């Protein structure tokens, strides 16, 4: 089962690197975004009631995504274990984003050297801050910060739980991947201090992303064989208001020996120089290498999970659990999954 999990991860990454993100009209995450937009309204003039409405949204909408993804994989698995496995891999593909992140970051960094207005326009696809008055160095900083943070939110946060849960139950793994992506989408759309409706979504995202952010920081440090950068990053990792984003951003700042700053909010590695275009290009490469490290971590977790499942099955302890969560253990050839 560990091999099947690795094959599904390979399938998801192959689709991401070869196909890229589907257009919004065909992307389930965009569909979910429209659902979130429909709830983004003033449910009550009372701030407390508006926050309570936000609690209901944070609790309910991610479950919709989870039930949809997990239910589809379960139905497909009941018809054909191979089809169910492939569909689980497709769910993982739709919930991760690496190629688009690296391409857009590289595009923004390069544009700062020749067309800063284009860079300011394109960086809006990476960060929510007002970029209209940012200098070329500040735009590069924003792009590098986003690359580090989105490696955590857009890849590691989904990949690791999928690797752990897929050997147990593919429907469960798909459901959790969709749930995490939905939580992150909710936070990005509603989780602003000025929005009482998004308070619950922001706090839920903080809880869900706590481990992935720190694993991402480790992956960045391991990618350049510089574990000491983690200890250096501790000095400023808590500077951003988010309890999580500072870890991958600060680690990347120290690995690159550059200053990353959001004006009026935080400065990471403030004693260093602003990033150059070459620093930005190196950041893109390092984020890609950290993604590879993350896959290796996922492979170890998948192997450990599969070994645990085998041990529990041998003892007979997994049967009632598997029945409760819709466990599907397809005995399929991983090579066949990838070919599909």
Q: What features would you describe in this structure?
A:
A hairpin with a 3-residue loop joins strand 1 and strand 2. Mean pLDDT is 90; it is low at 330-340. The chain is an all-alpha fold and 340 residues long. The chain has a two-stranded antiparallel ribbon. It starts with a helix and ends with a helix. Helices cover 72% and strands 2% of the residues. It has one domain (2-339). It is found in: Cell membrane. Its main location: membrane.
Q: Which consecutive residue ranges, at least 5 long each, have pLDDT under 50?
A: 330-340
Oligomer: single chain
Fraction in beta strands: under 5%
What is the residue-mean pLDDT, rounded to a whole number? 90
What structural class do helix, strand and pairing data support? mainly alpha
End-to-end separation in angstroms reads 17 Å
Outline the biggest β-sheet.
Answer: 2 strands, antiparallel
Query: How many helices?
Result: 15
The number of distinct β-strands equals 2
Rounded to an integer in angstroms, the radius of gyration calculated over CA atoms is 20 Å
What's the SSE pattern? HHHHHHHHHHHHEEHHH
- Helix content class: over 70%
**Biggest β-sheet: strands ordered side by side in the sheet:** 1-2
The global form is globular
Pathway: Cofactor biosynthesis; adenosylcobalamin biosynthesis
InterPro entries: Cobalamin_biosynth_CobD/CbiB (IPR004485)
Family: Belongs to the CobD/CbiB family.
Keywords: Cell membrane, Cobalamin biosynthesis, Membrane, Transmembrane, Transmembrane helix
């Amino acid at each position: 089962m560990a091999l099947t999990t690795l094959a599904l991860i390979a399938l998801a990454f192959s689709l991401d690197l070869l196909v890229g993100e589907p257009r919004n009209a065909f992307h389930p995450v965009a569909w979910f975004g429209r659902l979130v937009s429909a709830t983004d309204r003033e449910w009550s003039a009372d701030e407390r009631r508006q926050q309570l409405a936000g609690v209901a949204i944070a609790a309910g909408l991610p479950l919709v995504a989870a039930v949809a993804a997990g239910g589809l994989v379960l139905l497909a698995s009941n018809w054909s274990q191979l089809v169910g496995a492939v569909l689980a891999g497709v769910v993982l593909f739709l919930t991760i984003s690496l190629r688009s992140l690296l391409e857009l970051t590289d595009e923004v960094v390069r544009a700062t050297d020749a067309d800063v207005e284009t860079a300011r326009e394109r960086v809006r696809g990476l960060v929510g801050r007002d970029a209209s008055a940012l200098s070329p160095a500040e735009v590069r900083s924003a792009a590098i910060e986003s690359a580090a943070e989105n490696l955590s939110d857009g890849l590691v946060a989904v990949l690791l739980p999928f690797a752990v849960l897929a050997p147990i139950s593919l429907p469960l793994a798909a459901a959790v991947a969709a749930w995490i992506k939905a939580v992150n989408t909710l936070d990005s759309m509603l989780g602003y201090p000025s929005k009482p409706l998004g308070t619950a979504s922001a706090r839920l995202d903080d809880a869900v992303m706590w481990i992935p952010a720190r694993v991402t920081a480790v992956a960045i440090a391991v990618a350049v064989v510089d574990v000491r950068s983690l200890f250096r990053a501790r000095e400023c990792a808590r500077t951003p208001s988010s309890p999580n984003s500072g870890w991958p951003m600060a680690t990347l700042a120290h690995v690159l020996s550059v200053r990353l700053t959001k004006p009026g909010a935080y400065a990471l590695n403030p004693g260093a120089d602003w990033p150059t275009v070459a620093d930005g290009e190196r950041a893109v490469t390092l984020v890609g290498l950290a993604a590879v490290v993350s896959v290796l971590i996922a492979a170890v977790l998948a192997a450990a999970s599969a070994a645990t499942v085998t041990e529990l099955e041998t003892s007979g302890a997994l049967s009632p659990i598997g029945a409760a969560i819709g466990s599907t253990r397809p005995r399929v050839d991983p090579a066949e999954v990838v070919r599909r």
